[in-house]
Structure formats: structure tokens, C-alpha cells
TrEMBL record:
Pfam assignment, any one: Sigma70_r4_2
Protein name: RNA polymerase
InterPro entries found in the cross-reference section: RNA_pol_sigma-70-like (IPR039425), RNA_pol_sigma-70_dom (IPR014284), RNA_pol_sigma70_r2 (IPR007627), RNA_pol_sigma70_r4_t2 (IPR013249), RNA_pol_sigma_r2 (IPR013325), RNA_pol_sigma_r3/r4-like (IPR013324), WH-like_DNA-bd_sf (IPR036388)
GO terms assigned for molecular function: DNA binding; sigma factor activity
The entry's keywords: DNA-binding, Sigma factor, Transcription, Transcription regulation
Organism: Novosphingobium malaysiense
One annotated GO biological process: DNA-templated transcription initiation
Family, as annotated: Belongs to the sigma-70 factor family. ECF subfamily.
Length: 186
């Protein structure tokens, strides 16, 4: 059964297919925070994440005739965004192999601790975890980001990535195991 939000999105998708730019902007605004967070987690860099998301939205606009109003747009946008992140990761890896520079994520995090010492320790831990997530193989990283960070169910992640739920479960488990091996506080 579709709710009011689903009906609104379906109507917006139909308008987007017809070339209505305002409808596309409205549709993108609904999903922008979640997609940007996903991109940041995949790429580790705010600037790169924004670029990847802009490319994903531009690709969606260009291919708007392929949109299906009967299917959830969130899954489509997530898939396109993940693909753009994968492209950037491949280019980054190629650049690193050619010695064209390294990448150091700097993701600030809000701390619940009132003292500065705890905040510094939390930021250092986040940087270390972010670096280790970045070093995970892409298949493990995608599953981990979708399930553990983006909050998707294993079923949703499996549908997005075109694999079984068991595959997602295994990938998340292996990703967490690798992180535990590298980090003494996880």
C-alpha cells in the first residue's frame, strides 16, 4: 500500500519524466541529505562526495525517461550514487598507483563529551575508523556503509547491489572482522 509520500514521489517522477526541472529539484531535495551522507561514507571526503552526488543527479536528469514511477525512486538514486562513488574510487586508486597523490579523510564529528580531551580522542578514533573503512575492498565497504551506516536492512542492501541477503550478511561480517583486526577499540 502506498502512503502519501509514495504518491507524492510517484507524481514527481512522472513530472520529471516529462521534463519538469522544478519537480526534479523537489525530488532531489527529498533524498539529498541521505545520498550525501552515503557519498561521504563511501568516499571519506565531503568535496568528493558532493561532486559524486552532483554527477549522480545530473546522470539521473539526463536519463529521466528511464525512470519508472511505479518503482521507489530512493533505490534508483542510491544505485546511481553508489555507481558514481565507485567511479571516483577507481580513479583514486589509479591515481595512487601512479603516484599522483594520497588521500587523507578529515571527517569532523560532534562529541557528546564536554571536555576537549575526549573530543580530540573521538575525532582521532573516527579518522582511524574512516581510514580503515576506506581500505576495505569495495564490495565489503558498500555492504558495510549501506547496512551499518546508512541504516538499510540487509534485504534493501541486497536489492540495491543485486546480490542475496546472505551475501550482504557475509560481506558486513567480513568487513567488521577486518576492522576489528586493524582497530583495537572496535
Amino acid at each position: 500500500m502506498r502512503g502519501p509520500d509514495d504518491t507524492l514521489e510517484r507524481d514527481l517522477v512522472e513530472k520529471v519524466r516529462a521534463g519538469n526541472r522544478a519537480a526534479f529539484d523537489q525530488l532531489a531535495a527529498i533524498h539529498l541529505p541521505r545520498l550525501l551522507s552515503l557519498s561521504r561514507r563511501m568516499l571519506g571526503s565531503g568535496d568528493e562526495a558532493q561532486d559524486a552526488l552532483q554527477n549522480a543527479l545530473a546522470s539521473t536528469w539526463i536519463a529521466r525517461a528511464k525512470l519508472d514511477p511505479s518503482k521507489p525512486i530512493a533505490a534508483y538514486l542510491t544505485t546511481v550514487t553508489l555507481n558514481k562513488c565507485r567511479d571516483r574510487l577507481r580513479r583514486r586508486k589509479a591515481a595512487m598507483l601512479l603516484g599522483l597523490g594520497a588521500f587523507d579523510p578529515d571527517l569532523p564529528v560532534a562529541s557528546d563529551a564536554p571536555d576537549a580531551e575526549s573530543e580530540i580522542a573521538d575525532r582521532q578514533a573516527l579518522r582511524q575508523v574512516s581510514r580503515e573503512i576506506e581500505h576495505l575492498p569495495i564490495l565489503l565497504r558498500e555492504a558495510l556503509v549501506l547496512v551499518a551506516i546508512d541504516g538499510r536492512s540487509q534485504r534493501e542492501a541486497a536489492e540495491l547491489l543485486g546480490v542475496t541477503e546472505k551475501t550482504i550478511e557475509t560481506r558486513v561480517y567480513r568487513a567488521r572482522q577486518r576492522l576489528r583486526e586493524k582497530l583495537d577499540f572496535v
